[in-house]
């Protein structure tokens, strides 16, 4: 009851009072609550009387009972508490656990010392803003605050197996094979070798130590002549590029590799010749040459040119040594020596074509071939067929220009070894005999040219006409015999049309009595063949007299073939030359005439150039040229037949009178140069441009004799 009172008075239970009440209750059972007890206040009085009788040192003195009656009465009146007696109403007494330490005393407890705080930390703590209380009703069970921790983000693992890294799968890194690959039935490629990171200085030091530790060896060249980086560049260019464009054969069947390379391995002179030819063929200003230099940064253009000169000199030196050696007694090496000599002459010929040599050096090698083939032909029939076809093709093409200027006997008329049976043919016109007609037409043209120079009438005699009729019938009966799908079949048709144009233009020369311009052209033809100079005249070296309005611009004596020597009196060719009029003095019409002339000049500049055709022009030639140009347009730039198209482009271009036809020939020759890389195409364009310039001037006799035009320009080359 005292505990209850204590709770009612203080609002909490007192463990001391509760202990005292329990002891007194145990001692005196008479004070137990009876069923007929009065309300709790009466029990409190009874218990107070009994407690006074207990002799306990923990006894406490409570207030007067009268005062308690007042408190109880007031609470009873306010709360109106009614007690109902029931068997279940038992006063609940809290259980107190006995203390283990009887000597425990609250006074022995001391306050823990405070943690010393520095003055700076105290000020920084004061400066920090207070955290705001979150809005809303506080949680019954507040969340634990998120403590900011330095979380270490694990990067992408680089120690997994190679298979899982390629598949971008997580690897368990089991050894020797990961279980992920085993589970997915994938071949485990294993783990990459662990590499320790090292700085640049450490790597350089290791490389230096390794170079000092390794023994030095000298790698000797596998072939004689291939000693430097430049030599290997030339060797690669010959095998992968040059040998392909020199023949129409496929890449897998090429005589320049299958026949020339095995001989070059055994003969140093031929190896030097091949490398010299390859070095002269590379043009370092083209995209191909720039790419070669980019792929070989260890060399320079100057080093390549120096090495080219070295191979050129060594090739000539070895060739002359072999010529002296051949006069001695035959040896077991004689067979290889003869084949290598033919190979070197072929390389020398191609080198002149690759450089575009205008001095006629190729003719030395053609003459050397004719002399050697008659006395010492190669023993190998296949090699003999390859060499004979290639040289004979260029002999036919060389007659187009050389035979007109030199007036020497034709090379074909000289005695020589019988032509071998060429099988399989690689070029066109030699094995099938088509270029034989080209040589015969050239002979007719030389005869007509001689008659024109000697002023023989008629210039085309009966013998020439009869031979021309036979050649025309033979050309019509000729048919190409190439397998289906071979592009040389179309090239054969183009050669056939070329020969017909060449024949018609030969037997129909311009007449000197057709117009006044013809007389001037005939004089020019005499001057071209009689002038010792081969240079092209300049405009300042020609004295041009005034012309009348009725005189054609084609009669201008500004002709090609003049040299720096004295200019002949061309007025002698005119029957009645007009006297030179003195210049007019001050005239009122000078200004008006000048204005009219300037207006006329500007209108002529805007108008297209006039198309000039020779008198008595045969329209059949125009049709044949258009058909030939249409065939030329069908060849792709990468077609191997581009090697054979320069000769027909040159012959057909000499008969192109319209600017549109001339432009198509220019485009075709540009494509040929892009494929072959031979710079003799530039010499062909030089001659054609001069011929077309003379066409615009109307000098038809000089245009007809285009070999003389080439000689007047100082160009002696093979147009093939």
Automatic annotation (TrEMBL):
Protein name (Swiss-Prot/TrEMBL): Fungal-specific transcription factor domain-containing protein
Gene Ontology biological process: positive regulation of transcription by RNA polymerase II
Single GO MF annotation: transcription cis-regulatory region binding
Pfam family, one: Fungal_trans_2
Keyword line: DNA-binding, Nucleus, Transcription, Transcription regulation, Zinc
Superkingdom to which the source organism belongs: Eukaryota
Zn(2)-C6 fungal-type domain mapped to chain residues: 160-188
Gene3D superfamilies: Zn(2)-C6 fungal-type DNA-binding domain (4.10.240.10)
Ranges of compositional bias, category Basic residues: 131-142
Biased composition (Low complexity): 26-40
GO cellular component: nucleus
Biased composition (Polar residues): 534-558, 585-606
Subcellular location: Nucleus
Region feature (Disordered): 18-44, 116-151, 534-618
């Amino acid at each position: 009851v005292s505990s209850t009172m204590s709770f009612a008075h203080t609002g909490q239970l007192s463990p001391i009072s509760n202990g005292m009440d329990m002891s007194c209750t145990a001692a005196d059972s008479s004070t137990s609550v009876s069923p007929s007890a009065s309300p709790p206040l009466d029990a409190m009085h009874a218990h107070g009387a009994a407690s006074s009788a207990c002799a306990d040192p923990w006894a406490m003195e409570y207030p007067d009972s009268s005062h308690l009656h007042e408190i109880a009465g007031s609470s009873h009146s306010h709360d109106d508490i009614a007690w109902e007696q029931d068997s279940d109403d038992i006063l609940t007494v809290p259980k107190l656990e006995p203390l283990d330490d009887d000597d425990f005393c609250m006074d022995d407890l001391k306050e823990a010392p405070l943690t010393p705080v520095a003055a700076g930390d105290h000020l920084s703590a004061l400066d920090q803003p207070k955290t705001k209380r979150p809005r809303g009703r506080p949680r019954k069970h507040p969340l634990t605050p998120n403590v900011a921790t330095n979380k270490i983000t694990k990067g992408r693992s680089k120690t997994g197996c190679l298979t899982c890294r390629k598949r971008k799968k997580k690897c368990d890194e089991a050894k020797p094979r990961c279980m992920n690959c085993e589970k997915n039935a994938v071949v485990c490629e294993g783990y990459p070798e662990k590499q320790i990171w090292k700085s640049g200085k450490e790597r350089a030091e290791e490389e230096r130590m390794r170079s000092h530790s390794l023994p030095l060896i000298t790698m000797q060249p596998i072939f004689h002549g291939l000693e430097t980086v430049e030599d290997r560049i030339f060797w690669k260019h010959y095998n992968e590029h040059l040998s392909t464009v020199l023949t129409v054969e496929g890449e897998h069947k090429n005589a320049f590799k299958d026949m020339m390379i095995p001989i070059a391995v055994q003969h140093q002179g031929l190896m030097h010749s091949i490398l010299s030819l390859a070095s002269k063929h590379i043009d370092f200003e083209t995209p191909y040459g720039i790419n070669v230099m980019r792929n070989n940064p260890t060399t320079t253009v100057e080093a390549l040119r120096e090495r080219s000169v070295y191979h050129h000199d060594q090739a000539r030196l070895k060739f002359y040594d072999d010529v002296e050696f051949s006069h001695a007694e035959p040896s077991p090496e004689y067979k290889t020596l003869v084949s290598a000599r033919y190979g070197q002459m072929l390389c020398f010929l191609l080198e002149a074509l690759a450089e575009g040599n205008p001095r006629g050096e190729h003719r030395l090698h053609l003459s050397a071939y004719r002399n050697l083939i008659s006395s010492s032909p190669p023993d190998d029939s296949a090699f003999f067929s390859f060499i004979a076809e290639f040289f004979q093709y260029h002999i036919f093409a060389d007659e187009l220009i050389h035979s007109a200027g030199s007036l020497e006997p034709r090379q074909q008329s000289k005695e020589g070894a019988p032509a071998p049976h060429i099988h399989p043919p690689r070029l066109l016109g030699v094995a099938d005999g088509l270029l034989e007609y080209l040589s015969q037409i050239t002979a007719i043209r030389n005869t007509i040219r001689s008659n024109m120079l000697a002023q023989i009438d008629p210039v085309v005699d009966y013998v020439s006409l009869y031979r021309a009729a036979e050649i025309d019938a033979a050309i019509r009966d000729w048919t190409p015999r190439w397998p289906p799908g071979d592009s040389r079949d179309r090239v054969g048709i183009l050669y056939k049309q070329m020969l017909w144009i060449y024949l018609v233009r030969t037997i129909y020369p311009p007449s000197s009595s057709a117009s006044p311009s013809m007389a001037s052209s005939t004089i020019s033809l005499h001057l071209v063949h009689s002038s010792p100079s081969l240079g092209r005249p300049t405009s300042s070296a020609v004295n041009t007299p005034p012309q009348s309005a009725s005189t054609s611009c084609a009669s201008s004596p500004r002709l090609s073939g003049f040299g720096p020597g004295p200019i002949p009196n061309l007025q002698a060719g005119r029957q009645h030359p007009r006297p030179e009029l003195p210049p007019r003095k001050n005239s009122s019409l000078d200004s008006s005439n000048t204005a009219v002339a300037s207006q006329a000049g500007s209108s002529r500049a805007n108008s297209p150039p006039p198309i000039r055709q020779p008198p008595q022009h045969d329209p059949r030639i125009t049709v044949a040229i258009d058909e030939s140009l249409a065939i030329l347009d069908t060849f792709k730039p990468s077609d191997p037949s581009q090697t054979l198209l320069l000769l027909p482009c040159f012959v057909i271009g000499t008969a192109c009178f319209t600017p549109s036809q001339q432009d198509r020939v220019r485009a075709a020759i540009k494509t040929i140069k892009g494929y072959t890389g031979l710079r003799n195409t530039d010499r062909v364009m030089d001659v054609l441009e001069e011929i077309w310039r003379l066409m615009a001037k109307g000098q038809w006799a000089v245009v007809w004799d285009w070999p003389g035009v080439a000689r007047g320009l100082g160009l002696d080359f093979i147009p093939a």
